[in-house]
What does this fold into?
Amino acid sequence: MKVLLINASVKRGLAYGLDDGMPAGLMDYLGGYQPLGVCYLAAVLAQHGYSEVAIIDAEAENLPVEEVAGRVETTRPDLIGISCVSFSFLYALDLARLLKQITRAPIVVGGPHVDIYPLEVLTHTCFDAGIVGEGETSFLELVRLFENAPADPGPALLKVPGAVCRIDGRAAMNPERPTIADLDALPYPARHLLPPGRYLQNYLPNPFISILTSRGCSYKCSYCCRPDWTRRVRFHSPGRVVDEIERAMAEFGASSFQFFDDTFTLNRKRALEICRLIGERSLKIKFLALSRVDRLDRELVAALAEAGCSCISFGVESGDERILAAMNKGFSPPDVGAAFDLCREHGIDIVAYYLLGHPEETHASVRSTIESIRRTRPDWLKANIMMPYPASTLYEELVADGSLPDLWRRMTLTGEPFNPPHICRHLSRRELERYRLRINLAPYFRKRTNLLNVRRLARPRNVLWSLQWLGQLLGAYAVSEGIAGLRELRALADRRRSARAPTATDDVRPGDRR
It folds into this structure.
């Protein structure tokens, strides 16, 4: 049985009119990442004897739905799986509708958006089934089911835990499948099925490899869209993690890695053991990781640096105590400075992500964030505007109190995009965009700009990327300030006209009065 897996394109999905709060060009600047979800599905199928499995990464190749459909028509798969997030759902929907015109292959949809709106997604008849939760086992069972009953699997679909289907024309969801307890039992993701040369990381030598060493996140940030089943954190063993690193080095010639765990240092003992094994096996690598400012200490940071960690990304989000509390971040501004100082002591670069535009954000809280940036001096900044993601605590509260209609659910049901909502009560969208530009430009206009730091940029291509990103920011800044200047001139002209405006009797001469 020939199975084709498709990673739906977020870039193309945003073209439908959705807004993820990121400045234009940031996704290209950050580089391309391997879609490990579909790679794990492909690896599990191969492990169970399905040798004809292919992957189309529409995101990495920036493919329109028509080109993906053309490839499907050429390869003629027996079953198609589409993975999507919320911002790529409309792309996935259009693609599935188009595919139904050219193939009889069943289409199974999965990914984070299906986790949130499973029944709503399956109201669209272009999808034959869906998967909620971790899909490795459920997808394998669905493939077997469609292979044995290709015409009409019917009620048999109801026997697959975690599957979503239609019975008598109505969407139905089966009981959820328990999360995978032993991650080490999974095969290595099938990265060899991805298009070569498409995954480049800025500030790291390439090729680079994405690695997921754990699943789940126990934190409850109010803006994050996480179904409850993702709260349980599970880990690959340190030996398995380092085995995967060695395998990727041998198979792809990679020496650069990015750990995509939500918090790589969540389990301190395990992180230390991974670092120890990297050193014990004399692996000469560079890697990036994501962490929290309250999950580091001197010994751990020293071990990370010794193992090859060149950069750690932190979701700082705000420099204002009140906004951090409203986001339920669980740390305070002093924690940020302490973590950044530890990284600097050991030569680890810092990427700090900020979110502007919480409903309670004010000019004062943004100024606190800007002052925090000046004080803590992260090497790289990425500021975005907060968008209410589906299933987040923030979104559910805004819908519940009537501040927002249920936009994401309506989009899922209708297949129509919505205008980006503005949720900040004290600052306009225009003001937030200007603050965002100011923060993103900060690293380029301080005394030791990153453009002059060859160690950080590593390669000429990275210098070019940084210059392109700087050019985009400057262009946006010029437009923003130009528009602001025109508005100020218009307001000034209006005030002057108002000051000169004649009163009711100004044009009446004494001799005209009657």
Notes: Residues 201-386+424-449 form a domain with the pyruvate-formate lyase- activating enzyme fold (CATH 3.80.30.20). The longest strand covers residues 309-317. Residues 460-500 form the longest helix (41 residues).
